[in-house]
Amino acid sequence: MRDRTKVIIGFGSIWGLFAFGAMLFSSFTIGSNDSTPEIVAIILYGITILPSCILAIWFRKYAAMWLIALAPITAFGFIYQVITQSSIDKAYGAMARGITFFLITAAIPGLLGMFLLRTERPNITP
After folding, report:
1. Domain locations in the chain as residue ranges
2. Cβ–Cβ contacts within 10 Å for residue 87, how many?
């Protein structure tokens, strides 16, 4: 295994621990104003990043494909909640900030997956 692959898996594992802790913390605040897509996105985001990064040690391609697929799923759930909450509160001014934050947050597993796929390619040197 290459050094950059170890770095990607290590960063992904640390981010997976952070996502799992955030999911546990948010489970105490889930209320009536949360939507089903957001709850599914939170659960998938929190539960699957760390195991995917651990499985990437042996099955790098499958873990990378799951992490890439996880990015749009969580982006949809998070953004759906921001738009729904803004329409309920009539606070459309803060919507762009919330969408930007959640897009960046949802893009991290996708980036990890793309980097893992890139390390999957054989190293061709002359």
Report:
1. 3-120
2. 11
